[in-house]
Amino acid sequence: MSATTTNAAERMLGAELETSAIAVPPDQAEQIARDHYGLIGRAEWLWGEKDSNYRLTLEDGTAYLLKILNPAEDPLVTSMHSEALLHVQAMDPGIPVQRIIRTRDGAADFRFVADDGGKRGVRMVTFVPGIAQRTAPNSPLQRRKVGALLGRMQKALKSFTHAAASHRITWDMKHAGGTRDLMPAFADPRERARLERAIDEFEAEIIPVLHSLPAQVIHNDFNMENILVDPARPQDITGIIDFGDMVHAPILFDVGVAAAYQIGAEHDPVEAMCDLIGGYCGECVLSDAEIALVYTAAVMRLVMRLAIPQWRARLFPEHAARFTIRSASVWAQLARLDAIPRESAIERLRAASRQGYRT
According to the model, what pLDDT value does residue 202 have? Predict the structure, then answer.
């Protein structure tokens, strides 16, 4: 790959994904918990795309999530994520987000110097119950509840502001056109052509109206791993986790991201998206212009889910299998969407939004 191509791709990727998650030893994580939180427990490392995560289990079985953040994360961004969790809890305590555990000094997060000399942010939160939606049986009711929670989350975050809210992040769809720079990572010309067509549609339909779309700080990652459900009653949502990709952006993108993930393994991907839209529009209103763009935004998220992991697999070949583990299923989702006429899909989304408003 040429240096020119590499530099172009790096302009697309934010620093948080150009730096691999660097784990600290479990015993150091346990010491951090003792020294800064007064908690004594066993630390178990958990996989994270960019952060080093630990489940800290106390002797009585109580569990917490200790996040030792990516070395590239700006301290101001760390602060934003912590403050957002506190804000959502204050605005709508019924939203099942993780609760901040403050340090002995009362801080929502802090920084420490790791053994490698690098400064890292640290945050501890409650370990919310449930299993990932992806691993549970899915249903229309479950998807409608996910949509309703997304609407409530947006309403809770509407009044949230932070100096870091407009920071550059790879998964921010405002910059999604930059995925074109990542196309050399795909050897198959048919794959590249399909992805480039989606980028063309995004740039033609959304970029010209981008700055006129209603915007605020959004969660930006309402995916099936970040949505937890009750294993005994999988239609009930027990947790919404991971505020790590939040950014100030059009609320349309929040909906498009969530809709893309709710496709899952459903035979009719548009019906799955309609379930989410119906639930969401029972809480929030999307204009007809925004509804018409949800489909384009959802497809763009699928493109990002293929292009960014493929690029990262080249950056960090030792983690290639982890990064691309969902790629085959995302290609299958895109193929199922392609089998449904685009205008038909958009009209069905409009109908679902109207039904949501009446519910």
Answer: 97
